[in-house]
Write a structure and sequence with these properties.
Layout: E1 5-8, H1 14-25, E2 29-32, H2 37-45, H3 58-72, E3 78-81, H4 96-124, E4 127-132, H5 145-164, E5 170-177, H6 184-195, H7 204-216, H8 229-240, E6 247-250, H9 252-263, H10 266-274
Parallel strand pairs: 1-2, 1-3, 3-4, 4-5, 5-6
Helix pairs in contact: 1-8, 3-4, 4-5
């Protein structure tokens, strides 16, 4: 029997890289895509199929998927949309073009790839689309407005898709991590430096005393931080269970915030979040 196949995006490090290794070890044929050719080359050297897919470059979405389908004979059992980045900064300091840029990477590209995959899954009669969201897809944290917005949008789109696909054998699933070891903070620095003029901000003191230290100074793992294997465990259940859950929480903060979101008023939740 042919191995089941999964396309995973954002595999250069962190959740994507760990997911690629773990799913391969579980017997899947893994297509571990990256947005930079040098990362694809490194993964090819590790024995992976590694198509180039950059969510901000639509031509790579379609050429990368075409490479996958050529290798599988036109089928794909699962898609794990994962690659994303942050643009830290107060909402009042975010140029609108910064929002446009992060939505291309964290939302529009995901939608384009998913739309390209769904007809394949319809034709074969089954499939799983797993979206790596975040606890910040249903609660917010300050100075993460751009990232929050993309994840809130992703959750709304995914919930809608899940209902629309109920008459098919295609399952649409959310994974919602909290703090997980990755390079997302490090990778957000170029976007922060490109877009945020913090020295001219009304919130300059906050940048100097808090955000800059968080971005540029290593302080060790966050409280409750888990390794990316915690996400891998949820991904395996999402793609292998006969009856996958609509959403999977990962890390203690995700469970806590899910509970607070249900039981607290908006003002009370704001107070909790403001104290974090």
């Amino acid at each position: 029997m042919a191995k089941k196949s999964i396309l995973i995006t954002g595999c250069s490090s962190g959740i994507g890289y760990t997911a690629a290794i773990g799913m391969r070890d579980a017997g899947w044929r893994v297509f571990a895509s990256c947005r930079a050719q040098q990362d694809c080359d490194r993964l090819i050297g590790e024995g992976f199929d590694s198509p180039l897919i950059d969510y901000t470059r639509p031509e790579t979405i379609h050429s990368g998927l075409s490479d996958v389908l050529e290798a599988t004979g036109g089928t794909l059992d699962a898609l794990f949309n994962n690659g994303a980045h942050g643009t830290p900064g107060a909402v009042e300091d975010l140029p609108t073009d910064a929002l446009r840029a992060i939505f291309e990477a964290n939302f529009f590209g995901w939608h384009e790839l998913t739309r390209a995959v769904l007809p394949i899954m319809r034709a074969q009669g089954h499939g799983r689309v797993v979206q790596c969201s975040s606890v910040l897809g249903f609660v917010t944290l300050p100075f993460r407005g751009a990232y929050n917005a993309t994840k809130f949008a992703l959750e709304g789109l995914t919930d809608t898709m899940r209902i629309e696909m109920r008459d098919t054998n295609i399952h649409i699933i959310l994974i919602e991590p909290g703090p997980v070891t990755s390079k997302i903070r490090e990778n957000s620095i170029p976007h922060f430096e490109r877009w945020i003029d913090w020295k001219a901000s009304a919130r300059r003191d906050h940048y100097e005393n808090t955000l800059l230290k968080r971005l540029y100074e290593s302080s060790g793992p966050d409280r409750f931080e888990l390794p990316p294997e915690a996400v891998l465990k949820k991904l395996q259940h999402a793609v292998e269970s006969p009856k996958p859950k609509p959403r999977y929480y990962v890390t203690t903060p995700t469970y806590m915030m899910g509970f607070f979101r249900r039981v607290l008023s908006t003002r009370a939740l704001d107070r909790v979040i403001s104290g974090i």
